Amino acid sequence: MWLVGPDYIYHSHQAGFWLDEATEGGSRIFPPPFKCQRFLLTVEQDGIREKLAEVIRYGGGEVIGASTSRPASAASSKQWREKGAVVIASGNDLLRYAIQIPT
Question: Domain boundaries in the chain?
Answer without folding.
Answer: 27-99
